[in-house]
Amino acid sequence: MATTLDKVDVVTVGVGWMGGIIGAECAKAGMKVLGLERGKERGTADYLMIHDEFRYGIRYDLMQDLSKETITFRNDRKMRALPMRQMGSFLLGEGLGGAGTHWNGHNWRFLPYDFEIKTMTDQKYGKDKLSSDYLLQDWGVTYDELEPYFDKFEKTAGISGEDTNPFWGKRSSDFPTPPMKKTPILKKFETATSNLGYSPFMLPSANLSEAYTNPDGESIAPCQYCGFCDRFGCEYGAKTSPEITVIPTARKTGNYDVRFHANVVEVLKKGDKVTGVKYIDTQTGEEFIQPAEVVVLTSYVMNNAKLLMVSGIGKVYDPDTGKGTLGKNYCYQILPGATGFFEEKMNTFMGAGALGMTIDDFNGDNFDHSDLDFIHGASLSLTQPGVRPIAFNPLPPDTPAWGPEFKKASIYNFTRTLSVSGQGASMPHKENFLSLDPVYKDAYGVPLLRLTYNFTEQDRNLHKYLTEKCVEIIQEMGAKTAVPGNPLTNYDIVPYQTTHNTGGTIMGTSPDNSVVNTQLQHWDAENLFVIGAGNFTHNGGYNPTGTIGALAYRASEGILKYSKNGGSLV
Q1: pTM of the model
Q2: Which residues are catalytic?
Q3: Which part of the chain is the Glucose-methanol-choline oxidoreductase N-terminal domain (predicted)?
């Protein structure tokens, strides 16, 4: 028998970036907010011995425990879906801060084109540019409408950057802090891309270039360029994350609390409203019901969709009929690139997760697609994250896989290898979707989420085109050998590719084409909000965090408005 607890104004499911933003904004407004986090509490003091590549970079100590909950995967509906037993293609966060703890710190605003992609593509190239199998649609909001929220997130996070990219949307203010160091490695990229007629700029970074105090009074330290960002917490408090910004802000109000080891297994609904959530204490096995005036799903893409499905809220997408929206428009990313082997030795072991330079000349619709067999593109970057000895062992083609020559080549090339790579956009396809697995369950008896996904013709064509551009750049940088990335075949759940999963709980202007409205309020339950990259109707040429942050700040205004007036916000 579940124990019913005292009611709160707002409960968030997950305490990462989205849960922290909602918690801070609602708590500052005087609402009583509770964050439910199935992982443990953690913070900067816990990362003082974080430079253990095997523990954190290989065995993923900060990530979700897949022995308790995972997903199943198949390429198409004819295949049997099987559970993902080890972290592979993407890394699911768990614990205070979520994936915002172990991210690299790349912080982007999606392009104006992204938010109106259907309209702009049809107007410029015609409605048959992509086949009807691609489920392209606008987001229901424009870049200009989101710009104030992008600005607010960047000021909260202290993002370091420079407003010199001619292709992105207009900004209402400059970056809060200057760009990171332009190292000799980055200067090679800058010179090469400039020589080719492109427009390089420093990558917007949440690894801060200098000490910064945000508008809420939270202090963020300057980056030490130690090379331990991705998959690691920051021992210096210099990589902006929820546990050093929005979560402390929420706690200072006295209106906010976090309950750890609380795994939510169901959203409870009655009529056209939700009443709260049911969760299991993962340490004791006890069940609790947490009533709330407003429920906000702020966990990862996969879990938000799964919770709605197991709770029977919304209509699950059916690829046969095209009806239903829950689980629809799942998108991933493609990663075109090229590796260059150089003669000179470089300090590749030093760096930071978002230390890099980028060009957007081949992103969005920044180049003409009239004679091309794809839309969109990618940001192409050279990053200097700091390579580590276990995971990084680049070898030129035809190097023996073992023996003296293998050892010699490994040692020689460790500091003589650079890569240019792209974050390639992914378009929604009718056969790529999320659903519940009919066979497998998690440790708590809840069905696992099933991912049905494969790369499409659009993906392969885009990947090939951009790989050629990456080869061109790495050659211009002076590589003695340039090796293009392998062409796309079938998607596999291993190896690691990117944690930029999107879709499944998409936003829009109608319940016919979306799960939530443009305030991220659920169409079928007015006091339920669903926030995350699941709201994206497609995936862009950047990482999603900055756009998620903007959506969360916009949604927080909607929650406050709803708490006063009730009803639909659109």
Answers
A1: 0.97
A2: 500
A3: 221-329
